[in-house]
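Running low. Got one?
___
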Amino acid sequence: MKKLFFFILFAIFYTGVKVPEAKAFDPVTLAILAPYAMPYAEAAGKQALKGMVNAAPAMMDVLTNMLSIFLLPLGVIEVTVGAPFGFFGDGCYNIADGVMAPFKMVYSMLTVPVKLTGLF
């Protein structure tokens, strides 16, 4: 009986709720306002292009630092397996570069927004 009461109460409460309707955008308004919006769109496009040109080297720095993380396991293999073949020194350098790579990557990722604006 209690479940039926709550079901009826729920049905009464939600029968008066209006479903929101989608409103279409008037294409005539778009055609009227397009000539006024074009200069702003062109200016924004130039700034966006400058940002992408400035961001490309920054993203390449992030990519190279991300790939440098794989020097750590390579260095471990060179130190252990390649030591008899003369790869111990190179392995030590690769281990050091692989340990520093995540920190360099975080620094590169933090400087990407600054480089987008061209301030860096």
Observations:
- DSSP finds four helices and no strands in the chain.
- The first helix runs from residue 2 to 14.
- The radius of gyration is 30 Å.
- The chain has a mean pLDDT of 85.
